[in-house]
Amino acid sequence: MHQDKDWQLTVHISEQDRYTEAEAKLSTPNGTLTGRGVARRNPRDADVPSIGDELAVSRALSELSHGLLDAAAREISQIEHRKVRLTH
Q1: Cα(31)–Cα(67) distance, rounded to whole angstroms?
Q2: CA quadruple 47, 48, 49, 53: dihedral, nearest 10
Q3: Does 26 reside within a domain?
Q4: Does residue 65 carry a pLDDT above 90?
Q5: CB-based contacts of 60: which residues, under 8 Å, 6+ apart?
Q6: Is residue 37 part of a domain?
Q7: Do the beta carbons of residue 61 and residue 49 sit within 8 Å?
Q8: CA spacing 20 to 30 A to 35: which of 43, 53, 55, 67?
Q9: CATH code of residue 51
Q10: Structural domain of residue 57, as residue ranges?
Q11: What is the pLDDT of residues 11-24, one digit of tens each?
Q12: In sequence order, what are the residues at sequence separation of 6 or more whose Cβ sits closer than 8 angstroms to the Cβ of residue 85?
């Protein structure tokens, strides 16, 4: 059986002074998962906002991916009636 699905991913980035925060939200039929990431620029480093964006977003997406794996493991555990651990 072939079925196409669309999941909505949104990423919000907020910059203030030397700090960049990112929030990634994934909307699925089963609910919404959220990951957060932060980057802090060292005062001695050049002010390149795109680097802070990339670091904060990558950390938010990493947290989100771990949460998605945990959710899948919980669902499998309920079906299998045993503890399941999934890794990257």
Answers
A1: 12
A2: -130
A3: yes
A4: yes
A5: 11, 22, 23, 24, 35, 36, 37
A6: yes
A7: no
A8: 43
A9: 3.30.160.240
A10: 8-80
A11: 999 999 999 999 99
A12: 73
